[in-house]
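User: Here's a chain of 217 residues. Predict its fold as tokens.
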Amino acid sequence: MKNISKYSLKHRVAQEIRKFIFDGTLKQGERLTELQLSQDLGVSRTSVREAMLLLELEGLLIVSPYKETRVATISQEEVVELLIPMRIQIETYALKKGMPSWTDETKEQFKNILQDMKKAVILEDLPAFIDLDIQFHELIVTLSEMENVIRIWESIVHRIRLHFLYQNSKSGTLEKWLVEHEELIQTLISTDSLADAVEALKNHIVETNIPDVYLLE
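Assistant: Prediction complete.
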């Protein structure tokens, strides 16, 4: 772990810890201490404590008062019963609101993400692919330009990223995910049917996650 300036704000400390979680430096369920993190990052324990509280709100840390703090885990039940249904509702609703206003420039954004996904597959860079996967789905949400929908998405996006990280690191099928995203993006940028686009997105969310959800403990 690299040092960061002792003058960093809690958000910068939180970002550094967040990065450690998403790049696998910190493992799911791993115990964290204010003292160790403050030494690793070169900041005060107060800054670490404040950062931990932010990450707890994001669902990335589990903080037990006067006991211990651990990196959050994610279960099959949460993914199947909560995250996937929420994603379907949020993303398909956002698509319905945003797609009628898409321009050629919008479609180029999707194509650019797909090209970057192809590069990540060639490099066998799972973290980069996951980041692009999140970018893709987030783009659908933000294009709705509905602040309430975007805020709901932001409240669960870190749990979604943990799901992708923990499940996909065990399944290791980058090429398969690329094909699935390529098919969906092709549908989204070529169809004139909003109903077809919504159905394709819904199927994508289910079919890219349910087959491998058993890999979660």
